[in-house]
């Protein structure tokens, strides 16, 4: 059985979200900051030590862990083992002598590749689906949500309200109520978040679209439509793995800007 779910995906981003959204005096903030400072030693920590060092009760730590989506502190620690792999991916991404020149070259290549893959016909189709759907939910891991937030604000200019759900969202219950007139767009560039929630996505009964690089049929079979972000970068990965490159950093921003321009071109008259 998978240890991941819609809201239980990346321990680090979940803890950082708690730090960003809570007062420094709150119990949740204290526990989250402590765990972030001790991530490298997490395997050696006990729930008793966390409670003692944070000056909170053990039940407070248990409630905190459950709020993150984990059944126990032991399960939480098991999930943290993936952090070493992700740390290496962050280092490899930036470890280039002339980084500015390297990044510029990679970004230019990415922009051309996405422009070729995201044909105007495909963008028009997706823009129309967003416009015509009653409820639109965009999904992503918390660390990838920035471009979605900007897209959400842009559509609000038109009076089109969409909802964003991330791996740090507190509730996903409303997904069960979605129906034929609704739309879910899962933005998972590497495919990691899509793989993590693949079992959950099958339970959603509305039109589902995936935006990704990952071409595995394990994902494609669970969506009505898949928008691939490149015709050149074509991984087909069935397992969650650390991945960090210009696509995971910038491709959603570029793609959603193209999509918003298409939406604007089609529905600009509604602004007046």
Give the DSSP E fraction (strand runs of 2 or more residues).
5-15%
Shape: globular
Content-based structural category: alpha/beta
What is the ordering of alpha helices and beta strands?
Answer: HHHHHHHHEHEEHHEHEH
Number of strand segments: 5
The end-to-end distance, rounded to whole angstroms, is 52 Å
Strand order of the largest sheet: 2-1-3-4-5
* Radius of gyration using CA atoms only: 20 Å
Low-pLDDT segments, ≥5 res = 1-7
Written overview of the protein:
- The protein has helices spanning 11-21, 27-37, 47-54, 58-67, 73-79, 83-94, 99-117, 120-132, 146-156, 192-196, 198-201, 217-220, 246-267, and strands spanning 136-140, 163-166, 183-187, 207-212, 225-228.
- It is globular, with a radius of gyration of 20 Å.
- The protein is built from 13 helices and 5 strands.
- Helices cover 50% and strands 9% of the residues.
- Helix 12 links the parallel strand 4 and strand 5 (225-228).
- By secondary structure, it is α/β, with parallel strands linked by helices.
- Helix 2 (27-37) crosses helix 3 (47-54), helix 7 crosses helix 13 (246-267) and helix 9 (146-156) runs parallel beside helix 13 (246-267).
- A 5-stranded parallel beta sheet has the order 2-1-3-4-5, covered by helices on one side.
């Amino acid at each position: 059985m998978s240890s991941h779910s819609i809201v239980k995906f990346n321990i680090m981003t979940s803890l950082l979200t708690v730090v960003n959204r809570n007062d420094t005096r709150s119990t949740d903030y204290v526990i989250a900051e402590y765990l972030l400072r001790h991530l490298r030693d997490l395997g050696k920590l006990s729930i008793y030590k966390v409670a003692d060092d944070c000056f909170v009760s053990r039940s407070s730590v248990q409630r905190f862990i459950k709020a993150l989506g984990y059944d126990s502190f032991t399960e939480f620690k098991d999930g943290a083992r993936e952090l070493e792999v992700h740390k290496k991916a962050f280092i490899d991404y930036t470890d280039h002598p002339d980084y500015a020149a390297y990044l510029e070259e990679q970004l230019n290549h990415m922009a051309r590749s996405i422009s070729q893959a995201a044909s105007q016909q495909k963008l028009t189709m997706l823009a129309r689906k967003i416009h015509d759907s009653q409820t639109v939910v965009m999904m992503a891991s918390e660390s990838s949500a920035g471009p979605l937030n900007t897209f959400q604000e842009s559509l609000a200019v038109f009076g089109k309200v969409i909802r964003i759900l991330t791996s740090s969202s507190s509730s996903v219950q409303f997904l069960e109520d979605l129906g034929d007139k609704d739309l879910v767009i899962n933005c998972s560039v590497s495919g990691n978040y899509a793989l993590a929630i693949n079992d959950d996505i099958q339970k959603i009964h509305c039109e589902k679209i995936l935006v990704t690089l990952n071409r595995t049929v394990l994902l494609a079979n669970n969506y009505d439509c898949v928008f691939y972000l490149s015709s050149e970068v074509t991984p087909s990965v069935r397992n969650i793995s650390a991945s960090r490159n210009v696509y995971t950093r910038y491709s959603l921003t570029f793609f959603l800007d193209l999509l918003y321009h298409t939406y604007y071109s089609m529905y600009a008259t509604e602004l007046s």
